[in-house]
Amino acid sequence: IKMTWGEKVNNYVARSRAGKYFQLEGSGARRERKNTRFLTEIRAGFTTFFAMAYIISVNSAIISDSGGTCVCEGTADDPVCDNNSEYLICINEFRVQLIAGTAITCCIACILFGIMANLPIGLAPGMGLNAYFTYTVVGYHGTGNISYRTAMGAVFIEGFIFLILTILGIRQWLARLIPMSIKLGISVGIGLFLCFVGLQSSEGIGLVGSDPATLVALGGCPAIMKDATGACLGGKMESPTLWMGILGLLIMSILMLYRVRGALLLGIIFIAITSWPRVSEVTLFPYTEAGQNMFDYFKQVVKVQPLDRILAQFEFDLSASETWVALITFLYVDILDTTGTLYSMARYGGYMDKHGDFERSSMAFLSDAISIIIGSCFGCSPVTAYVESGAGIAEGGRTGITAITIGFGFFISVFFSPIFASFPPWATGGALVIVGSMMASSARTINWDYPGDSIPAFITIAVMPFTYSISYGIVGGVIAYIIINTFVWLMEKITFGKLKPDYSKREPYWEMIRGRPLLPIYMRYLVAKVQGKPFNWHEDEHEFSDDEDNSEESSKRSNEKDDEDYPTQVVTTNGVTGNGTRHETINEKVTS
């Protein structure tokens, strides 16, 4: 049988050293990732990139509201310098440079993550964190208690604290303390969160709008029919861009139904291109002042920006209490956001083992910490893993090649930022809704039979979209889990075991915690070297239910058996293979 050029490329890369490092199928790696193909990884990477491309313009727009490195003394008539032309010109220069800075940060972070962690996840400045950085820490046009340079210094320090916590294994240990039911709830909650984002107008198709009475309501009205708060005064469901977004959602859904490769990517590109002509009702560049500015920037196509206003703008002033508050807030929000996203993507991509950990978790957290430090050097708020990575995983991305491709997309956007900053939100909103629906299927594996597990998981799911915060959802679920299960434990002790629920349906929490060592693998290697003992570098590989011990021989037997029984598509709950077969992994058992 004659091979196609794609098969030749896939086979050539798989047999190379790079293919073995990234564990492509047919590479001969110790544990190949089944059904992985080089060209599939490339396609998945570009799908995630286009789903994340909005961050290039949105992040710069948000952070530039802080005034950045521009300085203006307010007057009684204009306290925040909204009417100072020189100041506004400076802010615009800062914003344009930050577009390039954001792209560079994302490029380095994604490539670093792909190489170190070998996971198909994209990294970029966190959306919630950049808003907190701008409007709470620095303040609109610098009206807060901390200057932009001081706040950026706090982000730089936070990155180093993250790095230390990761090297010592503390960050991984904190992540592993999260119960499995909440980890599953995180995946579902992020799915609903993604859907909510994809239905809004700022980053989605615009079906959901604000309402002063019910907070949210049916939207989709033209911009001229909205009040100052964004609520529709009339004309609901009459916005042309809404219907364009719905069309994109339907196109992606139908293409996925027929298993067309690159369904999400094709839908995003089609809607984006049809939104560029100025003569249509769905144009991204209307004949307004804002639309003209966007179109003028779009026409530049290729633009290389200087970085003098954003590069390494630090002031390390820790004397103010506000600086410490900002530092601590950055720290805990980023820990929860990144942890939640990584574990949900690991669950979605099929990388979670029976103890609730995922492959190369230490390297994933380590590269994230380094990315925060790098991002602060380019004027960006803390970097975190992005839930839009689920779009690439849905396209078949399973290795770090996907992340490297995302980074390559951001590298190209450094020079072609006018093009990549012009993907309208209604082009990518449909993809977020579809990915959200896929991630929500993890709800079937939550332990609904034991209230001590199911109620905290449900709180995690509900709080994320309703508070528009992944971290708040995790906090709510963890606190509920601690209170409920601690009360049950205390009542059992007080009554000497006479009052206790049926534990037979409870998940084995402590067995999962004790199943993995505290120190990361490289720390254990150093300890073994100091003690003069042999060390098995593969002892952290996935442990399934048939593992009897942690010996090298048992690991080898487990690996051989896993390779025989491994599903053709390594997706735990909802993956669809290239041949249409659906597989489901429930806890540690694999069923086809």
From TrEMBL:
Residues 540-592 are annotated as: Disordered. It is found in: Endomembrane system. It holds the Pfam family Xan_ur_permease. Residues 581-592 have a biased composition (Basic and acidic residues). Keywords: Membrane, Transmembrane, Transmembrane helix, Transport. The chain crosses the membrane at residues 98-126, 146-170, 182-199, 241-258, 263-279, 324-343, 364-387, 399-419, 426-446, 466-490. GO terms for biological process: adenine transport; guanine transport. Residues 570-580 have a biased composition (Low complexity). It is a multi-pass membrane protein. Its main location: membrane. The keyword Membrane applies. Belongs to the nucleobase:cation symporter-2 (NCS2) (TC 2.A.40) family. Azg-like subfamily. This is Xanthine/uracil permease. It comes from Circinella minor.
